[in-house]
Amino acid sequence: MEHSDGGSTVSVRTRNLTHTAPAEVSLQDALDALGDPVRRTILRDLAGSPDWTRACGTFDLPVTKGTRSHHFAVLRAAGLIEQRDEGSRRLNRLRRPEFDEHFPGLLDLVLAEPAAR
């Protein structure tokens, strides 16, 4: 579903996305988001990809579609990722510079951890 917003067409899905600035996130909320191995996998994959090139469905995750959506929402609420819709795909960007500014070194530790096998 789309609507016109001052001359541009905006997806209702995109309009309903809420992005939290990392500066508004508590350390506990950041740690809670980073504590899940599935979310760490998403972050490692995003760190190795150019911004806006990974759609949610392209991640190899051992979870259902609904659980996948939950993990992306948690990462968005913790200020770790930004999402935007392009057609039927939801693309992702790791907000590393913004997150690093508020939590220096934290993301480096998470991304340096070897992926679970």
TrEMBL record:
Domain HTH arsR-type: from-to ranges: 19-117
An MF annotation (GO) of this entry: DNA-binding transcription factor activity
PROSITE patterns: HTH_ARSR_2 (PS50987)
InterPro entries registered for this protein in UniProt: ArsR-like_HTH (IPR011991), HTH_ArsR_DNA-bd_dom (IPR001845), WH-like_DNA-bd_sf (IPR036388), WH_DNA-bd_sf (IPR036390)
Region described as Disordered: spans on this chain: 1-21
Comp. bias regions, Polar residues: 1-19
Protein name listed in UniProt: Transcriptional regulator
Provenance organism: Kribbella pittospori
